[in-house]
Amino acid sequence: MTGEYFEITNLLQLVLSWRLLIILLCGVGLIFMVVGRAFPEMQKVLPILIKPLYFTSCVMFPLNAIPKQYWGYILWNSLVHIVKLNREADMPGHISDGVSMNYLTIPTLIILFIGLALYRSREKAMLAL
Predict the structure, then answer these.
(1) Sign of CA dihedral 13, 14, 15, 21
(2) DSSP letters along the chain, please?
């Protein structure tokens, strides 16, 4: 057998982190939709803004590969918390140092409410052709 062995050790944490990921992406999507509609030239800039979030999300490399002195900067990215919490829930013995479900929940809800507030304030302009 090849590949990485995993088993779901904490199903509740896995489900909660995936739900928070969906909520976070809905909030970011709402913000980008309103900004992209209000300023059409931002549609060229937004992909450039997303790339640093992706590269620092620890999807392509583990957080432990980064020196601990830089973790304070990397851990501002909520996607790092999602990835690390998912790895902790999937892999027995994996320890997620520096990540927190609380830190993930608070920015996720803030981003969702900002997205909803922006959409609500621009709703008529968004629906008008």
Answers:
(1) positive
(2) --S-----S-HHHHHHHHHHHHHHHHHHHHHHHHHHHH-TTHHHHHHHHHHHHHHTTTSSS-GGGS-GGGHHHHTTSHHHHHHHHHHHHHSTT---TT--HHHHHHHHHHHHHHHHHHHHHTHHHHH--
Q: Which of 1, 9, 16 is nearest to 81 (CA)?
A: 16
Residue in the structure block whose two tokens are 């779901």: 8
Three-point CA angle 53, 35, 60, nearest 5°: 15
pLDDT at 2: 66
Assess contact for 50 and 44: CB atoms under 8 A.
no
18 vs 95: CA distance, rounded Å: 18
pLDDT of residue 54: 85
Displacement of CA 124 from its chain's centroid (Å): 29
- Which residue stretches of the chain have pLDDT < 70? 1-2, 4, 129
